[in-house]
Amino acid sequence: MPSLFHSLKAIDVPADASEFSVELAVDPGKSITLNFTDDKGAPLSGVMINGLKSESRMEQVEGTTATASGLGIGDLRPLMIRHEERQLFRMQRLEPTEGQTELTVQLLPPAIVTGRLIRSSGKPLTGLQMQVTHKIDPNMTHSLSPGQQTGADGSFEWKLPVGTAYTISAVGEKAITVARNLDVQEPMQIDLGDLIVEESTENWVDVKPKREPIKSPLTN
Predict the structure, then answer these.
(1) Chain centroid to CA 152: how far?
(2) Residue 148: which residues within 8 A CB-CB, separation 6 or more?
(3) Cβ-count burial of 204 within 10 angstroms (0-12 exposed, 13-18 middle, 19+ buried)?
(4) Are 117 and 171 in contact, with CB atoms under 8 Å apart?
(5) Phi and psi dihedrals of 168, rounded to 5?
(6) Residue spans of the chain under pLDDT 70
(7) CA atoms of 203 and 5, how far apart (whole Å)
(8) What does the longest C-alpha to C-alpha distance in the chain come to?
(9) What pTM was estimated for this model as a whole?
(10) pLDDT tens-digit profile of 69-101?
(11) 44 vs 107: CA distance, rounded Å
């Protein structure tokens, strides 16, 4: 995958060559200053961020700004940002444009997704391992951690950072797709309601919701 390399060049080495030289051009790329704000728009210091550099690594930012480097015009750099103490988060796609030098990134409270997994008889599915994946980077699938289990009544709750779409699944004897491409772009309460899991011989099964999800503003 070319986007994962700093430089890439096809070469054709003669079979009888004892040595072979090649020159690779390396461009340091573009840098953009990121300005972090909280949900009220005030400068925010002390965030943790993954994506400042091309390699995937979480870094602590002491001040209210940081520099993302090694960027290409029009290329995608996924940023995963959080402030644990304030419980503010953001999934951000950074796609630099010509002449761009900075970007303000607002961290927000997460969306809260709830639901309940049950059999068609009404029996709750308890102790299932819940998994959430997202694709802030379209070339890779990332998982949120830590995982959790459905409760005694089959219920679950996830806090999802805004800025991307999620797939929620549950794993027990079978793998259950709870929600696909659940787009979260602002803080809200998303109640999926009762989700019916019918008996199946398939290894992957989908739920049958009793109703449409109910979305409502978060309350303090």
Answers:
(1) 28
(2) 129, 130, 156, 157, 158
(3) exposed
(4) no
(5) -110, 135
(6) 1-6, 145-146, 220
(7) 37
(8) 74
(9) 0.83
(10) 999 898 899 999 999 999 999 999 999 999 999
(11) 9
